[in-house]
Amino acid sequence: MEPYPAHRESGCLNQTESMLKTSQLAVLVLCGGTGRRVGGADKPLLPYRGRPLLETVLSRLPAAQQTLLSANRNLARYARFGLRVVSDCVPGRGPLAGIASAATLLEQNIKWLYVVPGDAPGLPQGLCAALHAAAASHSHSTAYARAERAHYLPLLANRAALNRLARSPDGAVRDWLQGQRGDAESERSGTQSAVLAWPDERAFRNLNTEADFAV
Questions:
Q1: 9: buried, middle or exposed (CB in 10 Å: 19+, 13-18, 0-12)?
Q2: Cα(99)–Cα(173) distance, rounded to whole angstroms?
């Protein structure tokens, strides 16, 4: 399937074009990594350009009914950001476990969950709406972006996809999005992903090393 094109002028689709309602959207910021390349620190809590990296990430998020933080340590420090903090039910299983745990806390009216990494300070503010437009155009329940290469985070997933994930929150995000875990069921439940073409690879840059934070 050809990637769904981003808006030709701005690189994103606005909220009106995607028909994504704030009241039906939740956002999850993944902060549960081990930070092995930064001395075992929590990257979202490290200073970046004069403030904690997480503050920058949060400033790039769309308006949403719910915003959650996925974290497995330093919970009190994350709580100071004023958002609900959720830990993995079974630690050590990676991002899918964090997504599955957060999905159990979504309010009843939420239809879509936008999941972003907590170490990516440059995410486009229109990306969530663009992913939703891509998913809606192909009647898919998940969507991710591709620039020079595929980026499986951030992602957008609806309730059907999240319910399926809850039954088996193991493996890689890539495999889940590509529908490789139970092929026949993926086809029936519509969990094959829409792929959004994005023009700027730099938008998805993660901060991974101490040198990255010094920029």
A1: exposed
A2: 10
**Helix H or strand E encompassing 177:** helix 173-177
Measure the CA–CA gap between 96 and 115, rounded to whole angstroms: 10
pLDDT digits (tens, 9 = 90+) for 17-41: 458 999 999 999 999 776 677 877 8
The dihedral over CA atoms of 146, 150, 153, 158, expressed in degrees to the nearest 10, equals 70
How many CB atoms within 10 Å of residue 183? 11
**β-strand partners of 168:** none
Q: Does 154 sit behind a cis peptide bond, omega within 30 degrees of 0 on the bond before it?
A: yes
Q: Taking a C-beta distance cutoff of 8 angstroms, is the pair 26, 112 a contact?
A: yes
First to last CA, the chain: 38
